Write the structure tokens for this entry.
Amino acid sequence: MTKMTAAEKREARWGWAFVAPTILGLIILNFYPIFNTVYQSFCKTGDFGRGNTFVGFANYAAVVTRAETWQSLWNTVKYALIEVPFGIVIALILAVLLNKKIKGRSFYRTIFFLPMVCAPAAVAMVWKWLYNTQFGLLNNIFHTNISWISDPKIAWIFIGVIGVWSIIGYNMVLFIAGLQEIPGDYYEAASIDGATGIRAFFYITVPLLSPTTFFIVQTRIIGALTIFDLMFMVMDKSNVALPKVQSIVYLFYQYSFTNGNKGYGATLVMILLIFIMILTYILQQLEKKMVYHN
């Protein structure tokens, strides 16, 4: 093994100096909270948040035997079933349309991306007004009296609608980036063979866009399963539909920060983590079979 020269040592020191902030950030903001959460899931929180008592798998036994855990997990899955597929399909259609040379293309892209940069509190306030049963805009326009987010049977659907509206712009930008990576030669060859429009979309665009699509699917599933801020700001604690809408992260918040039972809350997070890891593994296996790499 050859010794490093003075110049190589100096270069290595500068390299470590540049990556050190990122490494420290990962350790402090990511790795430590993960290990601390795992540890707390085996503990009962002491008085005033101090003096945790190790209780083994007692928290896990309590979590998996309570109906509210599975109801919250099911609520989260239902939300993901609305947000992920609809958010991706609508965003893909918009991306294809806005990838063409049309007048005002940049303006339309900006308009659809605006929900991503809006303050969540402002978004929640506007949608609560739209959904209000008594003086909401939707009921006034359609002359109805529907409890959009107060009826336990339908509230989860219209919370999902907000999620779709919020994420379309983000998905659209990623799809546009993927579309611009597809060589135009494919479409020229297809047009010569008479495959244009819908056929070109399904036989060229969709297969060649599959890596981008799978990336969005995986990240949005994780994002949807960890939803919290939207439900926290739209659903009031007094809302009768809350038990049928609250996500598992919302339940974690209630136990950890409202009830002060951080051990139980950490266990809820670990259950969600295990569930996400299983889904991610399944998606990774599907990616090997379904993604077309050009």
Strands lie at 43-44, 53-54. The mean pLDDT is 88.
